[in-house]
Amino acid sequence: MRILVTGGTGFTGAALVERLLGLGHEVVSLDYQPGRREAQLRDMGAEIVRGSVTEREVVARCMEGVDVVHHVAAAFRELDVPRQHYDDVNVGGARIVLDEAVRCGVKRFVNCSTCGVHGNVEHPPADEDAPIAPADYYQRTKYEAEPIVTEYSQRHGLSAITLRPAAIYGPGDPERFYMIFRRVASGTFPMFGSGRTTYHPVYIDNLVDAFLLAQDSDISGGRPYLIADENYYPIEQIVIKVGEALGIDVRIPHYPVMPLVAAGYVCEAICKPFGISPPIFPRRVDWFRQNRAFDITRARTELGYVPAVGLDEGLRRTGEWYKAEGMLSVD
Question: Dihedral of CA 240/242/245/250: which sign?
Fold first, then answer.
């Protein structure tokens, strides 16, 4: 099949493109900026197109002859842009991709949202019917795109499904877990708050498995599925497990979280007018105080999703990749 992956040179998109190429598919990758693996994917046979999902002509060109769309592109951790940028990309861009998918008669559309649409999970674990409570503009705009996917499926006959991944990590991840690994590698991890807040990871290979299951499923209507690993953990246990993966007995001193929360808002407010990425900001601080814990029963029973790689093995592979890339030094 000919498959379009938007956001195809980012961490998640590149892993998906590589798997699809390995399965013999013809893959078009659309992304507005180069990724670490762009040259590798091109050498493997991917058609790499530089452009944004907000550019209708570019999207239309990429969509010609496409059978399946994996819509992964999103404005995510871009801190030096106006908030309208998140609406333009995550909502407006989704509508453009959906428009062109319908125009070209695409057979299957897999939309990538986020577990963050549920916000802080007050009664863990949350399933797909748990309250929608996005805590920031990224999560809000990702959720606002979900009903649009449902609309195009129900009104325009587009076979579509939505995935809500948990905290994605694994080899190739330059940001999410890298900060945890880097702090643990120093031997000390400052913990703000109790450390009992829950966190639910999903290893990148497990997530790609879910994309392929969604691609092959006949379930439609934009039905959402939470995609995560088997278990969720207190964040302090995540830190300890990263230490075990690196062979480090990490020290975890505790500090009050509220001063950090205040500092996050102040830093973001000061840096934003100058287009500077703040060293700390509210969404980063939320890691210490918001629960993420999910029930993957729907994905398991309806898609046949089974997370094959557990946390210990996933962290070991991830740590080895950081060291091989020279991103981590462990004595």
Answer: negative
